[in-house]
Amino acid sequence: MLLTIRSLTKTFPGTTALDAVDFDLAAGEIHALLGENGAGKSTLIKCLTGAYSRDGGEISLEGRPISPRSTSKAQELGIGTVYQEVNLLANLTVAQNLTFGREPTRFGMVDARAQKRQAEAMLEGYGLDIDVSRNLAAYSVAVRQIIAIARAVALSGKVLILDEPTASLDAREVETLFDVVRGLRDRGLGIVFVSHFLDQVFALTDRVTVLRNGRRVASERTADLNRVRLIEHMLGHALEDEVIAHGKTHDAAAAQRPELLRFENFGRRGHVEPFDLAVGRGEVLGLAGLLGSGRTESAELLFGVVEAHSGAARDENGTFDLSSPRAAVAAGFGYAPEERKEDGIVADLSVRENIALALQAHRGWLRRLSGAEQARLANNYIARLDIRTFGPEQPVGELSGGNQQKVVLARWLAMNPRFLILDEPTRGIDVGAHAEILRLIQKVTAEGMSILIISSELDELIAVSDRVIVVRDRRHVAELTGREITSDTIVRAIAAPQAGRQNSGEEAA
Ligand SMILES: Nc1ncnc2c1ncn2[C@@H]1O[C@H](COP(=O)(O)OP(=O)(O)OP(=O)(O)O)[C@@H](O)[C@H]1O
Ligand SMILES: [Mg+2]
Predict the structure, then answer these.
(1) Residues 163 and 82 occupy one common structural domain
(2) Measured from the CB, is residue 33 less than 6 Å from ligand 1?
(3) Same domain for 215 and 311
(4) Which atom of ligand 1 is nearest to 44's Cα?
(5) Domain co-membership, 411 together with 429
(6) Is residue 247, in this structure, part of any structural domain at all?
(7) What is the top-level taxon of the source organism (predicted)?
(8) Per-residue pLDDT at 227
């Protein structure tokens, strides 16, 4: 065995994050580490890489016990990690990022030509066609991720840990990344892969270990598992009534709804071309498109994060201001963006305070919510979204990644906006909570809230949407309703100019 973990235990005040966990990783193996939000995956990885100290248990690498005290010590031993948020520096060149901390020098200065050669050598075999002397910022998230992997492999070279590496990649980029990872496996690395995308687990991995509430509940060959059994391992029970299977019926009659508001010729040069969009009361609008196609840009425009250059928003009372997020909130809009960190999750405030924050700001500080009202609100959403926390007073920073995501969602739902924009609301969220969130969307829209949802998971988009807008090259290129909403028509509209009904407004001047 390349890596052996025996009886690993880690406790935090009030939580046993890992309870005597065993884990084995062979050389030349891709091993999935799975479990619900808060199951202990990231904690296991942090103990393994020296980011956390452990309370008990043994870790051995190639038969020798190890106790790395820091991630750089772990790297020296051969264990490299790449997280979802790539921790490289965007304003340095690719070469500087790759050689950071061990730059070749000449006469006491960094030897730029040797650095470039070294960087190019490090990227050999990864199938990237890039200029290492350009800033990292010039390249997509996918390319950055591969660069981060190349750096980790060059520094470490035995064990590579990928913690939700595909969360912000599109399908093609995922394939590229997988090719890279398979290549590394074939070179004899042991790879740990953490993901909530079960399809990817089946496509990529050789073995699966499942954690539940800090305990190992299964370790099996991927080929011996199926989706249903895997989900049962994760949840500890069968997943009743998966929402995907019970999606909208997509009959045209249901699409006839009273209009809540409409955007006319709404656009911004260089951001999104002007579009017309009517929103029905209680309607779910899906926004489909590739990464970078203009989905998030559309959402930003609709919420006043960037100001429109043209057009207007109107409802039954006439036009209203959408020139800033503050104006958008005043107009009854809500927006949960994709990056929860940028959304200002306040890590050292409690779950209660984070959920009450936006609502309190909206009501104004004079009409203060009492502590008891806040607690009631928080407890309600903790239960509805199954937020794993030991109570409303726990600091949000102590929650697992997926549970922080649920807190962001709760915050916006608590405001009860008339129009809520959700950018990738189920990203990083486990299967059980995933279904719960889709159910919640159906519930609040039945009560009259209108929702615009951006999702890269087509099945999910199809299951919840009454209407799907397809965005390509920063234009709204198609609008699908009723029976037109199938993955086939959506994919074709994403790919081909002639597919779908043209609905893009005029060309930007
Ligand atoms: N620094 C910390 N302080 C207190 N509790 C923590 C800390 N880090 C993690 N925990 C707790 O340990 C448990 C396991 O969290 P962990 O982040 O390992 O989950 P995870 O499996 O990675 O979940 P996710 O899929 O949401 O990323 C959770 O209950 C979490 O609240
Ligand atoms: Mg995690």
Answers:
(1) yes
(2) no
(3) no
(4) 18
(5) no
(6) no
(7) Bacteria
(8) 84
41 lines ligand 1 (CB under 6 A): yes
Tokens linked to 209: 């270990």
Instruction: Give a yes or no: residue 72 inside a domain.
Output: yes
Alpha-carbon gap, residue 360 to 395, rounded angstroms: 18
Check residue 250 and give its pLDDT: 65
What is residue 17's predicted lDDT score, i.e. its pLDDT? 95
Ligand 1 in contact with 35 (CB < 6 A)? yes
First to last CA, the chain: 63
Write down which residue in 416, 449, 468 finishes a domain. 416
What pLDDT does 241 receive?
53
- Closest by alpha carbon to 94, among 118, 61, 111? 118
Q: How far apart are CA 449 and CA 120, in angstroms?
A: 52
Query: Which domain-ending residue is among 416, 431, 451?
Result: 416
Domain that holds residue 302: 257-332+417-509
User: 190 CA distance to ligand 1 centroid (A)?
Assistant: 24
Please state the φ and ψ torsions of residue 134, each to the nearest 5 degrees. Answer: -85, 160
Q: Is the CB of 400 under 6 A from ligand 1?
A: yes
Ligand 1 atom at minimal distance to the Cα of residue 389? 31
Query: Does residue 191 sit in the same domain as residue 311?
Result: no
125 in any annotated domain? no
| Distance of CA 407 from the midpoint of ligand 1 (Å) | 14
C-alpha span between 450 and 97 (Å, rounded): 44
> Is residue 70 within 8 Å of residue 26, measured between CB atoms?
no
List alpha helices for 287-422, DSSP H.
295-302, 325-330, 351-363, 371-384, 401-414
Do 300 and 409 lie in one domain? The reply is no
How far are the Cα atoms of 129, 158, 184, 217, 223 from residue 206, in angstroms, in the given order?
29, 17, 14, 17, 7
**pLDDT beneath 70: ranges in the chain:** 84-86, 168, 239-255, 339-344, 365-366, 496-509
Do 323 and 354 share a domain, yes or no? no
Instruction: Kindly state if the Cβ of 37 falls inside 6 Å of ligand 1.
Output: yes
Please report the pLDDT score of residue 379 as a whole number.
94
| Structural domain contains residue 106 | no
- Expressed in angstroms and rounded, the spacing between residue 319 Cα and the centre of ligand 1 is 46
Ligand of minimum distance to the alpha carbon of 397: 1
CATH code, domain carrying 208: 3.40.50.300
Q: For tokens 């929860």, what's the residue?
A: 340
Kindly write down the DSSP assignment for every residue of 60-118, as one continuous string.
EETTEE---SSHHHHHHHTEEEEESS--S-TTSBHHHHHHTTS--EETTEE-HHHHHHH
Instruction: Report the number of distinct structural domains present in the chain.
Output: 3
| In a shared domain, residues 457 and 323 | yes
Q: Which helix (H) or strand (E) holds 178?
A: helix 171-186
User: What pLDDT sits at residue 509?
Assistant: 34
For ligand 1, say whether the CB of 304 is within 6 Å of any of its atoms.
no
Q: Are residues 54 and 169 in the same domain?
A: yes
